[in-house]
Task: structure prediction
Amino acid sequence: MNLDSFINKCINAVSDCVKAASNGADTAQAPAQQDAQPSFALAEDTLRQFLNDYNCKYSVDKVDEENPRSAHRYYFDFQGGHFVVFAYHGAGIEVMYPRIVDVPERYLHIVRATCNQRNMQDSRFKYSYEHLSQDAEVGVHISYFAEVTTVEALHEALEACFGAQRVFNERLKNAIENARDEGTLDVERHFNDHKRERFLISNQEISHSQEPDKSYIMPEGKFALHHALREVMQRPDITLTRMQVIEGEKVSEVTAEDADLTAIDLGAKIFDTPAGGEPGFLCPTLVAVAHYKTPLSPNPDEEYALIVTMRAAGTSEHTAFCRVTMVFDQADVSLRNSILSKADNKMPTSYSFLIGSDTTSTQQMRAEAEYMWKDALIKLEEGNANDLTEEQQLLLDVTNGDTAYNMYWGRRYMLANRYYDAIAHFENAYRCMRRGFFSSNKEESKQFLQMMFFLGFCYCELRLWEKAFFYLNIVRTTGNIHHVMEYVNVLANSGDIRVFREIENIVDDIRQQYNDDDDIPEHVQSLLSFLRRRRAYSLIEFGEIEEAEKAFKALLDDPESHDYALSELAYIQKLKAQNEEEDASPKEGEAPSEKE
Result:
């Protein structure tokens, strides 16, 4: 029961007594009412008995008992700890163990995060902090409530306070050390950013029972087919010949002789996002039919059709969104798939994704990035590195304004699921930083490797496995768990045979570092669960259905993997049923069985 509950209970008790007295309640009702309420006298007498039994010297500040919110305050020392007990009139006692630790005020964010963490994990004690501005420190207090207690229970609770103090101090010490390693004291924001990255990584664990999400946002509301064909569909072989565009009731046609069809901005035909104005749409739906040729066709003069549908999908404060669906000609899809050697790599017949148009101009974006970059350098020069944001920390060793601009917005877009936007910025920054790689210092090299991780992550989201592997293969040995997880993701999702060897090597490295399972930290346990899921998924991809089924059944006992394992086990049962139907049906050229 919390403090407000006790106070409300006290007020209600006093109110009942006053009403009973005013109504002329007889004196025989008083003992019954007294027995029904928590006894203030019993709680205070028990406290005094405890203090006498354990020879604790104490002092008391008494207050007016007529006030229902008042409390006697007892101050005493017990086993080297100084305690304060508030004995509330008509309720119970609150035990406080004040200032279990004092730390400099620059660690305020870490203290707050640690208190929040302990309050969620410890149901017995309440952890609070106080900003001691006069001492430039932050003090932490432990407290708990009891309506009626015994001497033994009070002794046990005070002993438990010392244990809670040790646990809190250890957690706080580790949090401060981790914050120093990460270069930030705002651990809550740092944790949220890392949690967001981990959430995005977990979404890339493609499940067989559902289609992977391909949603992403194009840069600045522009949508030209050469971006989609080159970056998303990987179809540089396509040559557009003509295009019909249907905007509501308006129909227009453009040929390759009139303009470069791949460079036509279809986004400008549906978005209405003036700089500084409200985002909107020129029309609710737009359809474009692009005719094209490909040298992969047996007949180079044969034309195919690509249908692009753009539909308004709502607005936010600064952005208008629309859903784009691109459907390839079935004849061309069949042609492409006949060239591919593996059915696993079949080209899809359609793609669907989200694009957006921002009312923020490029000049405003550059101004914001430049401000954040210069502000980061000023904070570092003035010794205020702890005030840097996550994006600003990426800019500390940047010496070029264009690189700062691309790194800043690349990071912003990546955390907002705008992977296509992020790639454009990260690629520009990568090319600039690559030229000075061998002359860079340790921090610059670390920054460059993180840039390659971001690129690999974004390419993985767009299912461009080869490009993703190029970057992630470089950063897989940095020791960063996120880098390792993303590297395994691209191997598993692309059906790379190396996934089994790499998972086995990673697990062996972990076993060598931790001899006992109980010694493995929580974040490493999470990595092991991730690796088991990826291995079992890959077993299905390589036809090892029985072994995969055993692996997923073993994962049912893992809370982190339970739901994913159930989904994949259902998919395995579907595969088995399909295999049984295929085995039962007669093969081509075979006579049906006598039973049939």
Remarks:
- Residues 1-8, 17-38, 210-219, 339-346 have pLDDT under 50 and may be disordered.
- The first strand starts at residue 58 and ends at 61.
- Residues 101 and 154 are 22 Å apart (CA to CA).
